């Protein structure tokens, strides 16, 4: 079972984040598109989802809303960390457990993920 | 009213000129062939001055008649009053003294008008730039691109700088990523600068709907070769408009409409001609027959999105994608097939008679979706109706100065008045 599933369309960001978090000892999976994002969460059942807001084909907020409405209460309650390019102040994401604004410091990412997984 | 305002100014100017020459009222009056008492009334703007008398007074005062009764006065007074209307509530200029100000201190009056016009121009530029910054899809996409590249560079560079064990293949990959992202940043930044430079071009068109509206304003020339229609989307939209206009014209020919337009009420026009009201409204906005020369038309779909904007002079219109929620156009959506006549007032103080109507259609039959469309015919209230306006409207919240509007959904970027 994955610790973290990251849904992010920017491959270089995804690679960097995966490396940072893998080095911390977590198992990280990647999904590159909004399309199929909810299916990836359902099949992988990760402990944490890192979800970009602006994704091709399907936005992160749509995926989050569908996840929260899932008939499996355990899956619906999966902690979600949203990555946003818009900044936390201008975007209201009440269904997310945490929001991280791009660009972020690696320490900030590690601390947030550690807090959410523990 | 116009005549009166003009003559008031002329009287004041006659007095100013006489005093400047240090001449007595009686002398000037005698030279002009009138009594001193009558000249006194003229100078204090209590009597009108006919054209012949202006000529005689001008000769007596050794000045040209044009200088005493200049034709541009009314426009200048209107400009002064308009400048006063736009001031904040706590500023209370003596609007009724605008003619006096112009006559006695033409230099200062000119300065006020010039400043007001400059403020208007800057406001328009601010709105244009603000629209671009917040709604321009190219700009949003480009900035997102920049942010993504910066995020990648920052995370990757930190990985390399933090030290620790990095397998050689990963290290090589990160270096390659840094190289690619820095290249991406460089080219995107150049494109962004070039794009921002283009902001200097006033009134640039950048959405297909704006292209179509410009094309319509130019008289809807043939789509092929129309310079205003730069995009495929705009050309496709223009063809749809052309088809609709041709169908409308066949259903209500120019000569029939022009004859019917003697009646200022579009509802009565539609009833007498036995045609739908929405057709009459569209045709009035296109043909603009006598009595409807300044007609404008707004059309929206069931979601409230504006699909066509034919501007009426002075009616405050924002960029596509934005609107004032108080426009009667949107009220019509809630009560289809019922015409709503509303007298509205813009922030500039100008009033407009509006007629709004929503229609419903099921083009795919009874089982298909119901499509709602609303139209609002806009006519300047040139008669100056004494009634209070039914509604105080604006262009759109972001560029509307009505600070205490109950329908406000976001703060204005303009100074509130």
From TrEMBL, chain A:
Keyword Nucleotide-binding set for record: no
GO biological-process terms attached to the record: phosphorelay signal transduction system
Residues with 4-aspartylphosphate modification: 52
Entry-linked InterPro entries: Bact_response_regulator, CheY-like_superfamily, Sig_transdc_resp-reg_receiver
Keyword terms of this UniProt record: Phosphoprotein
Classification via Pfam families: Response_reg (PF00072)
Response regulatory domain mapped to chain residues: 3-117
PANTHER family reported in the protein's UniProt record: REGULATORY PROTEIN (PTHR44591:SF18), STRESS RESPONSE REGULATOR PROTEIN 1 (PTHR44591)
Protein name: Response regulator
Organism: Paracoccus lichenicola
Automatic annotation (TrEMBL), chain B:
GO molecular function, a single term: DNA binding
InterPro entries hit by this protein: Cro/C1-type_HTH, Lambda_DNA-bd_dom_sf, ScfR_C
Pfam families linked: HTH_3 (PF01381), ScfRs (PF09856)
SUPFAM superfamilies: lambda repressor-like DNA-binding domains
Lineage top rank: taxon: Bacteria
UniProt-listed PROSITE patterns: HTH_CROC1
HTH cro/C1-type domain location: 14-68
Name this protein carries in UniProt: Helix-turn-helix domain-containing protein
